[in-house]
Amino acid sequence: MAGCARRGLRDAQGWSAFTGQPMEKALDRGWYAMVHPEDLPQLRDVWSLALEEAAPVDVEHRVRTAGGSWRWCRARGVPVPPVDPAAADQRPEWVGVLEDVDDRRRAEERRLLIAREVDHRAKNVLAVVNTILHLTRADDPKDYTRAVVDRVAALARAHDLLAEGGWQGADLRAVVEREFAAFPRGALIAEGEALPLSALAVQPIGMVLHELATNAAKAGALSRPEGRVRLAWRAEAGTLRLRWAEEAGPAISGPPPRQGFGVRMVDSTIRRQLGGSIARHWEASGLVVEIGLPADRVLSAEAIPSPDRDRSAA
Fold first, then answer.
1. Considering the entire predicted model, what is its pTM?
2. How many angstroms separate the CA atoms of 140 and 142, rounded?
3. How confident is the model at residue 9 (pLDDT cuts 50, 70, 90)?
Protein backbone atom coordinates (compact mmCIF):
# COMPACT_ATOMS: atom_id res chain seq x y z
CA MET A 1 0.00 0.00 0.00
CA ALA A 2 2.90 2.37 0.57
CA GLY A 3 3.61 2.32 -3.18
CA CYS A 4 1.21 5.21 -3.53
CA ALA A 5 4.05 7.61 -2.83
CA ARG A 6 5.18 7.16 -6.38
CA ARG A 7 2.88 5.04 -8.47
CA GLY A 8 -0.36 5.14 -6.54
CA LEU A 9 -2.28 2.22 -5.13
CA ARG A 10 -3.39 0.63 -8.34
CA ASP A 11 -2.70 -2.90 -7.06
CA ALA A 12 -3.60 -2.36 -3.38
CA GLN A 13 -7.31 -2.95 -3.10
CA GLY A 14 -6.91 -3.48 0.65
CA TRP A 15 -6.16 0.22 1.08
CA SER A 16 -9.70 1.25 0.18
CA ALA A 17 -11.18 -1.45 2.39
CA PHE A 18 -8.98 -0.38 5.30
CA THR A 19 -9.32 3.40 4.97
CA GLY A 20 -12.51 3.90 2.99
CA GLN A 21 -10.60 6.11 0.56
CA PRO A 22 -11.57 5.48 -3.10
CA MET A 23 -8.72 4.20 -5.23
CA GLU A 24 -8.79 7.17 -7.59
CA LYS A 25 -8.26 9.58 -4.67
CA ALA A 26 -5.34 7.60 -3.33
CA LEU A 27 -3.28 7.87 -6.52
CA ASP A 28 0.01 9.73 -6.54
CA ARG A 29 0.17 11.31 -3.05
CA GLY A 30 -3.55 11.46 -2.43
CA TRP A 31 -3.17 8.80 0.25
CA TYR A 32 -1.40 11.39 2.42
CA ALA A 33 -4.90 12.66 3.29
CA MET A 34 -5.43 9.50 5.37
CA VAL A 35 -2.26 9.96 7.43
CA HIS A 36 -2.42 11.54 10.89
CA PRO A 37 -1.42 15.24 10.69
CA GLU A 38 1.19 14.79 13.42
CA ASP A 39 2.90 12.00 11.48
CA LEU A 40 2.68 13.48 8.01
CA PRO A 41 5.76 15.79 8.04
CA GLN A 42 8.10 12.94 9.02
CA LEU A 43 6.43 10.58 6.55
CA ARG A 44 6.91 13.08 3.72
CA ASP A 45 10.60 13.43 4.58
CA VAL A 46 11.07 9.66 4.68
CA TRP A 47 9.41 9.13 1.29
CA SER A 48 11.16 12.11 -0.32
CA LEU A 49 14.54 10.69 0.66
CA ALA A 50 13.55 7.18 -0.42
CA LEU A 51 12.38 8.36 -3.84
CA GLU A 52 15.47 10.48 -4.33
CA GLU A 53 17.86 7.64 -3.46
CA ALA A 54 15.69 4.71 -4.57
CA ALA A 55 16.14 3.28 -1.08
CA PRO A 56 13.85 0.94 0.88
CA VAL A 57 11.29 2.43 3.28
CA ASP A 58 10.34 1.20 6.73
CA VAL A 59 8.28 3.67 8.76
CA GLU A 60 5.39 3.66 11.23
CA HIS A 61 2.58 6.18 11.26
CA ARG A 62 -1.11 6.48 12.02
CA VAL A 63 -3.77 5.97 9.37
CA ARG A 64 -7.43 6.93 9.54
CA THR A 65 -9.57 3.85 9.04
CA ALA A 66 -12.90 3.54 7.28
CA GLY A 67 -14.55 3.65 10.71
CA GLY A 68 -12.96 7.01 11.51
CA SER A 69 -10.47 5.79 14.12
CA TRP A 70 -6.70 6.16 13.97
CA ARG A 71 -4.54 3.05 13.91
CA TRP A 72 -0.78 2.67 13.90
CA CYS A 73 0.56 1.03 10.76
CA ARG A 74 3.97 -0.03 9.56
CA ALA A 75 4.71 0.83 5.93
CA ARG A 76 7.47 -1.07 4.20
CA GLY A 77 8.38 -0.61 0.56
CA VAL A 78 11.22 -1.42 -1.83
CA PRO A 79 11.96 -0.02 -5.27
CA VAL A 80 11.78 -2.38 -8.23
CA PRO A 81 14.23 -1.54 -11.06
CA PRO A 82 12.64 -0.50 -14.37
CA VAL A 83 12.08 -3.14 -17.04
CA ASP A 84 14.35 -1.26 -19.42
CA PRO A 85 17.31 0.14 -17.43
CA ALA A 86 18.41 2.05 -20.53
CA ALA A 87 15.30 4.22 -20.44
CA ALA A 88 16.52 7.38 -18.75
CA ASP A 89 13.05 8.69 -17.91
CA GLN A 90 11.77 5.45 -16.43
CA ARG A 91 11.59 5.51 -12.67
CA PRO A 92 11.39 2.42 -10.44
CA GLU A 93 8.12 0.88 -9.41
CA TRP A 94 7.47 0.52 -5.69
CA VAL A 95 6.04 -2.53 -4.01
CA GLY A 96 5.30 -2.87 -0.36
CA VAL A 97 2.92 -3.68 2.44
CA LEU A 98 1.06 -1.72 5.06
CA GLU A 99 0.81 -3.72 8.29
CA ASP A 100 -1.61 -2.89 11.11
CA VAL A 101 0.61 -2.70 14.22
CA ASP A 102 -1.76 -0.76 16.45
CA ASP A 103 -2.09 -3.50 19.08
CA ARG A 104 1.68 -3.79 19.36
CA ARG A 105 2.14 -0.03 19.66
CA ARG A 106 -0.55 0.20 22.34
CA ALA A 107 1.12 -2.63 24.26
CA GLU A 108 4.47 -0.85 24.05
CA GLU A 109 2.92 2.38 25.30
CA ARG A 110 1.30 0.47 28.14
CA ARG A 111 4.62 -1.14 29.13
CA LEU A 112 6.30 2.26 29.09
CA LEU A 113 3.54 3.72 31.23
CA ILE A 114 3.88 0.88 33.74
CA ALA A 115 7.65 1.30 33.84
CA ARG A 116 7.23 5.00 34.62
CA GLU A 117 4.63 4.19 37.24
CA VAL A 118 6.90 1.64 38.90
CA ASP A 119 9.75 4.16 38.91
CA HIS A 120 7.50 6.83 40.41
CA ARG A 121 6.21 4.49 43.09
CA ALA A 122 9.66 3.22 43.95
CA LYS A 123 10.73 6.79 44.65
CA ASN A 124 7.60 7.35 46.74
CA VAL A 125 8.30 4.21 48.75
CA LEU A 126 11.86 5.32 49.45
CA ALA A 127 10.54 8.69 50.62
CA VAL A 128 8.01 7.02 52.93
CA VAL A 129 10.62 4.62 54.30
CA ASN A 130 12.92 7.56 54.96
CA THR A 131 10.13 9.27 56.89
CA ILE A 132 9.42 6.10 58.86
CA LEU A 133 13.07 5.69 59.81
CA HIS A 134 13.38 9.27 61.01
CA LEU A 135 10.07 9.73 62.82
CA THR A 136 9.48 6.35 64.46
CA ARG A 137 10.31 6.57 68.16
CA ALA A 138 13.62 4.92 68.98
CA ASP A 139 13.41 4.73 72.78
CA ASP A 140 13.85 0.97 72.68
CA PRO A 141 15.87 -0.65 69.85
CA LYS A 142 13.65 -3.74 69.66
CA ASP A 143 10.44 -1.72 69.57
CA TYR A 144 11.94 0.60 66.98
CA THR A 145 13.00 -2.30 64.76
CA ARG A 146 9.61 -3.98 65.02
CA ALA A 147 7.72 -0.75 64.23
CA VAL A 148 9.89 -0.03 61.19
CA VAL A 149 9.69 -3.59 59.89
CA ASP A 150 5.90 -3.65 60.28
CA ARG A 151 5.44 -0.34 58.49
CA VAL A 152 7.69 -1.34 55.61
CA ALA A 153 5.77 -4.62 55.39
CA ALA A 154 2.53 -2.63 55.09
CA LEU A 155 4.05 -0.75 52.16
CA ALA A 156 5.04 -4.05 50.58
CA ARG A 157 1.49 -5.41 50.90
CA ALA A 158 0.11 -2.36 49.15
CA HIS A 159 2.59 -2.75 46.32
CA ASP A 160 1.81 -6.44 45.99
CA LEU A 161 -1.84 -5.53 45.44
CA LEU A 162 -0.92 -2.90 42.89
CA ALA A 163 1.31 -5.32 41.01
CA GLU A 164 -1.44 -7.95 41.01
CA GLY A 165 -3.80 -5.40 39.46
CA GLY A 166 -1.35 -4.29 36.79
CA TRP A 167 -0.70 -1.01 38.65
CA GLN A 168 -4.26 0.10 37.93
CA GLY A 169 -5.43 0.06 41.54
CA ALA A 170 -6.97 -2.44 43.94
CA ASP A 171 -10.32 -3.18 45.52
CA LEU A 172 -10.82 -1.57 48.93
CA ARG A 173 -11.96 -4.86 50.49
CA ALA A 174 -8.76 -6.54 49.29
CA VAL A 175 -6.70 -3.79 50.94
CA VAL A 176 -8.66 -4.22 54.19
CA GLU A 177 -8.37 -8.00 54.21
CA ARG A 178 -4.66 -7.89 53.42
CA GLU A 179 -4.00 -5.60 56.38
CA PHE A 180 -5.98 -7.86 58.75
CA ALA A 181 -4.55 -11.15 57.47
CA ALA A 182 -2.32 -11.53 60.55
CA PHE A 183 -5.15 -11.08 63.04
CA PRO A 184 -7.37 -13.90 64.34
CA ARG A 185 -10.51 -14.74 62.41
CA GLY A 186 -13.36 -12.59 63.67
CA ALA A 187 -11.14 -9.66 64.65
CA LEU A 188 -12.52 -7.73 61.69
CA ILE A 189 -16.10 -7.20 60.62
CA ALA A 190 -15.92 -5.61 57.18
CA GLU A 191 -19.06 -3.98 55.83
CA GLY A 192 -18.96 -2.41 52.39
CA GLU A 193 -19.43 -2.99 48.70
CA ALA A 194 -16.65 -3.65 46.23
CA LEU A 195 -15.00 -0.31 45.48
CA PRO A 196 -11.93 -0.06 43.22
CA LEU A 197 -9.33 2.33 44.61
CA SER A 198 -7.16 4.36 42.28
CA ALA A 199 -3.50 3.41 42.07
CA LEU A 200 -2.51 6.57 43.96
CA ALA A 201 -4.78 5.74 46.91
CA VAL A 202 -3.87 2.11 47.59
CA GLN A 203 -0.64 2.76 49.47
CA PRO A 204 -1.82 5.63 51.71
CA ILE A 205 -5.10 3.92 52.61
CA GLY A 206 -3.22 0.71 53.34
CA MET A 207 -0.86 2.61 55.64
CA VAL A 208 -3.77 4.28 57.44
CA LEU A 209 -5.41 0.92 58.09
CA HIS A 210 -2.09 -0.50 59.27
CA GLU A 211 -1.61 2.29 61.81
CA LEU A 212 -5.17 2.01 63.08
CA ALA A 213 -4.82 -1.75 63.45
CA THR A 214 -1.43 -1.42 65.15
CA ASN A 215 -2.78 1.05 67.71
CA ALA A 216 -5.81 -1.17 68.30
CA ALA A 217 -3.50 -4.15 68.91
CA LYS A 218 -1.37 -2.19 71.37
CA ALA A 219 -3.99 -0.46 73.51
CA GLY A 220 -7.37 -0.83 71.83
CA ALA A 221 -9.93 -3.51 71.07
CA LEU A 222 -7.48 -5.85 69.36
CA SER A 223 -5.37 -6.05 72.53
CA ARG A 224 -8.01 -8.40 73.94
CA PRO A 225 -9.04 -11.82 72.57
CA GLU A 226 -12.71 -10.85 72.45
CA GLY A 227 -12.05 -7.45 70.90
CA ARG A 228 -12.92 -6.68 67.31
CA VAL A 229 -13.09 -3.87 64.77
CA ARG A 230 -16.13 -3.06 62.70
CA LEU A 231 -15.03 -1.29 59.54
CA ALA A 232 -17.73 0.05 57.22
CA TRP A 233 -17.37 2.06 54.03
CA ARG A 234 -19.58 3.54 51.35
CA ALA A 235 -19.33 6.00 48.49
CA GLU A 236 -21.87 8.81 48.39
CA ALA A 237 -22.14 12.35 47.08
CA GLY A 238 -18.59 12.41 45.79
CA THR A 239 -17.09 11.15 49.07
CA LEU A 240 -15.70 7.82 50.23
CA ARG A 241 -16.68 7.43 53.88
CA LEU A 242 -15.04 4.95 56.24
CA ARG A 243 -16.05 4.26 59.83
CA TRP A 244 -13.65 2.40 62.10
CA ALA A 245 -15.36 1.29 65.32
CA GLU A 246 -13.59 -0.74 68.01
CA GLU A 247 -15.68 -3.02 70.19
CA ALA A 248 -15.13 -5.11 73.36
CA GLY A 249 -11.81 -3.46 74.12
CA PRO A 250 -10.47 -1.88 77.32
CA ALA A 251 -12.40 1.04 78.78
CA ILE A 252 -11.26 4.43 77.54
CA SER A 253 -11.98 7.84 78.97
CA GLY A 254 -10.57 10.11 76.31
CA PRO A 255 -7.68 10.74 73.95
CA PRO A 256 -4.18 9.63 74.97
CA PRO A 257 -1.98 12.31 76.56
CA ARG A 258 0.58 12.05 73.75
CA GLN A 259 0.22 11.57 70.02
CA GLY A 260 2.67 9.08 68.56
CA PHE A 261 4.06 8.89 65.06
CA GLY A 262 1.26 6.57 63.94
CA VAL A 263 -1.45 9.08 64.80
CA ARG A 264 0.44 11.90 63.12
CA MET A 265 0.99 9.77 60.04
CA VAL A 266 -2.70 8.90 59.78
CA ASP A 267 -3.75 12.53 60.14
CA SER A 268 -1.18 13.77 57.63
CA THR A 269 -2.05 11.05 55.12
CA ILE A 270 -5.78 11.69 55.31
CA ARG A 271 -5.69 15.48 55.35
CA ARG A 272 -2.62 16.44 53.34
CA GLN A 273 -1.95 13.58 50.97
CA LEU A 274 -5.55 12.59 50.21
CA GLY A 275 -7.31 15.90 50.93
CA GLY A 276 -9.83 14.32 53.29
CA SER A 277 -11.10 14.71 56.84
CA ILE A 278 -10.79 12.59 59.97
CA ALA A 279 -12.53 12.69 63.34
CA ARG A 280 -11.96 10.51 66.42
CA HIS A 281 -14.55 9.77 69.07
CA TRP A 282 -13.63 8.05 72.33
CA GLU A 283 -16.86 6.29 73.12
CA ALA A 284 -17.58 3.88 75.96
CA SER A 285 -17.58 0.94 73.56
CA GLY A 286 -14.21 1.91 72.06
CA LEU A 287 -12.51 4.26 69.67
CA VAL A 288 -14.50 5.36 66.63
CA VAL A 289 -12.71 6.96 63.68
CA GLU A 290 -14.69 8.57 60.88
CA ILE A 291 -12.88 9.36 57.64
CA GLY A 292 -14.10 11.22 54.58
CA LEU A 293 -12.10 11.15 51.36
CA PRO A 294 -12.81 12.90 48.02
CA ALA A 295 -13.96 10.18 45.65
CA ASP A 296 -12.25 11.73 42.65
CA ARG A 297 -8.89 11.38 44.39
CA VAL A 298 -9.17 7.88 45.83
CA LEU A 299 -11.58 5.89 43.65
CA SER A 300 -11.19 4.66 40.10
CA ALA A 301 -13.25 6.70 37.65
CA GLU A 302 -15.88 3.99 37.14
CA ALA A 303 -16.54 3.78 40.90
CA ILE A 304 -17.28 7.48 41.46
CA PRO A 305 -21.00 7.96 42.07
CA SER A 306 -22.61 10.48 39.75
CA PRO A 307 -24.92 13.16 41.19
CA ASP A 308 -27.78 11.89 39.02
CA ARG A 309 -27.41 8.39 40.40
CA ASP A 310 -27.31 9.72 43.96
CA ARG A 311 -30.55 11.66 43.41
CA SER A 312 -32.30 8.71 41.81
CA ALA A 313 -31.27 6.47 44.70
CA ALA A 314 -32.68 8.97 47.17
1. 0.62
2. 6
3. low
